[in-house]
Amino acid sequence: MSDMPPKLAEIVEEFASAPREVVLEMLLEFADAMPPVPADLAGHDGMEQVPECQTQFFLKATVRPDDTVEVWFDCPPEAPTTRAFAGILAEGLQGATAAEILAVPDDLYARMGLANAISPLRIRGGSAILARLKRQVSVGAG
What we know:
CATH class: Alpha Beta
Organism: Paractinoplanes ferrugineus
CATH topology: Sufe protein. Chain: A
Pfam families: SufE (PF02657)
Number of strands: 3
Family: Belongs to the SufE family.
Distance between the termini: 26 Å
Radius of gyration: 14 Å
Protein name: Cysteine desufuration protein SufE
Number of helices: 6
Largest sheet: 3 strands, antiparallel
Low-confidence stretches: none
Domain Fe-S metabolism associated: 13-136
Number of domains: 1
Helix content: 40-55%
């Protein structure tokens, strides 16, 4: 799994090797651990909406001068699966460079074995989040 940042690779491996009944618990832990957006992004100012998600979901990625990327996600607590995707990306990509994020495989959620635990619609939403995140990073790094 060297095609993704080490923290994210570790999370993917944990999910891929977990029994199905534990996966949902793990998702809820990531949903609960998702950091709140800073005050300057409250109200989604400067954040991009991900319309492919069934729920209101917003993200913002900023490429810093040292080429690391800061990511922020906002999603209501009533959407735990989508919040979990955001929490996984927030933790797994913390401190990652633009190139590392752009190298994250598009089938990330399939590699995690989530297709057995959650609906295809949710997987599509998660994939759309990753795609929009990568697009913001590529624009910011360009």
